[in-house]
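Dear support,

Our group has been running a series of protein-ligand predictions, and this particular one with 2-keto-D-gluconic acid is the one our PI (initials K.S.) wants archived with full inputs and outputs. We had some confusion internally about which version of the output was final, so please treat the block below as the authoritative record. The input we submitted was:
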Amino acid sequence: MVETVLVTSRLQPPGDETLPVDDFDIHDFNRCDDKEKLLAKFGEKTTGVFCSGSSGTLDCDLMDRLPNLKIISVMGVGYNTVDVAAAKKRGIMVSNTPGVLTDCVADIGMALMLAISRGVVIGDDYTRSGGWVKNGTMAYTTKVSGKRLGIIGFGRIGQAVGKRAEAFDMKVSYQGPNHKDIPNDYYAEPTELASNVDFLMLTCPGGPGTEKLVNAKVLEALGPSGMLINIARGSVVDERALASALKNNVIAGAALDVFENEPSAPEDLIGLKNVIVQPHHASATNETRQAMADLMVENLQLFFSGKPVKTPVPEMD
Ligand code: 8YV
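Confirmed final output from the archive:
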């Protein structure tokens, strides 16, 4: 029997091109104008779903309309778009794509830290717009090497950032739900970590457990020379508190790859000179996005051939 699979959110390229259209009966629920019609026709038959880890939602309501759903294969390491507890209750497998994107996300973390601190974006503009010719040397920037980096969420990606930062002679410490058996300093509270570092980088998962974890208090603790780098999820930061902290020199700068309401970035953040932004691009290299799409497909294929999926989300244990 050919399994019916829905694509419930926009897959980042090359997700769509990688779909195993010869092996499965695949329908694009996300782009479909008449979703009700599609659900009426295929809802009951659907046994698999492909979705993104950063857009769209696969909640109880949609699961109720897919009573025979058996697997949700997410393209992304983050899977806050899926109600995993509801899926688990219904016996639905959820898989994601960890590992294959660790390097690229960690690379962007370093790139953003260097860019905000060393004024790379401002320097680009200064050179192109004639500021250098007109005004001479640009204002000096802030050193990165040898400074203290605090990482919130010291999992695969956090540790990969830590490894890179150590090559820059940085002192790396972390905060997260668990103290790990590693030599880096651990702080139980984000404020404690923030008050002991120069750069605060976010690599933790999104979702209700980390919502607005970085609030006005944490930013105050980071202090007037501190900089925030967010490569996690926009929801981890209180964006209004961040805009206010940046405007009032409570912190020195922020480099943000992610936002609460993507693909929009709040006006009061992007209007600021001490902020640099990216369009949620951390994993977006040709190599990594292909590897993510391949793993997303492989997990679903393995599942339907009766084999264990390669990367179930940890909650499946
Ligand atoms: C992608 C990501 O933007 O993997 C993640 O959690 O945030 C990114 O790599 C996205 O999830 C791809 O679907």
